[in-house]
Amino acid sequence: MDAEQLDRIFKALADPTRRRIIDRLREQPAQSLFQICAGSVAEGEKALSRQAISQHLDMLEKAELLQVSWSAQTKIHSLDLKPLREAADIWLNKHL
Question: Which Gene3D superfamilies match (predicted)?
Answer without folding.
Answer: Winged helix-like DNA-binding domain superfamily/Winged helix DNA-binding domain (1.10.10.10)
